[in-house]
Give the backbone structure.
Amino acid sequence: MKKICFIFFFIPFFLFSQEPLKRTKKILYKNERNVGVNVHSLGWGMHARRAWNDNVRWQHFLEFDVVSLKHPKQVKTINAFFSDAKGYDFGKQNSTFLLRSGYGKQLILFDKDDFGGIMVSAIASTGLSAAFLKPVYLEILYQDELTNEFYVETEKYDPKDDNHTLYSIYGRTSYFKGFDEMKVQLGAYVKGGFTFEFSKKDEVIKSIEAGVCLDAFKIGENSMLKSAIGDELPIMALTKNKKTFLTFYVNMNFIFGKKW
């Protein structure tokens, strides 16, 4: 009995004296790539990044984002007079998505001490932001004068048209309607945030990145550049449009991240 008590007394010391599994050797990979999902305060989409390590702390990268963008005042509505009506955003003139392409730097703040750790990095990037504007088409209700029956016509939304009201709009049509009328407006963006990389394998990237991004589509005016780059994005017809969009974003990379 005394021997058993002696063993149980010293078990906690053996357990807590064990240290986490440390790396005996860390490989500095020269290349990285990751592709993931982007969720931000005004939409969602995909992002991709191709990075090159400069040294153990710094790396530079090229990045690409394709994300949807909505106006902060967009409100989903539905025609309450018809039970099968389709929801739409009243006053929305153009559906918008952004294509960002830029250059950035990443600084490792805290590296992994063991295989179960988390690497924390700070990132900053800037580049070109192109807004693709697709006209919104809606299904408009009309009433036959002879039969008094309702029928639907697909039309481009026009806030000046007396038939395009809350009562006569039946709902949205196919999102792909109007792609042949798409316009592009150029701007710029700047982004900053923190990345938390938690993969247990050095050659695999699994990370979450959180930060802020500012897209600007009207950058000053002067006699030489006139309206400079772009103008306010014409997303809404009945609400004041914006020239800058500050969004909070989260990038999630769980599948396609790799180092080599």
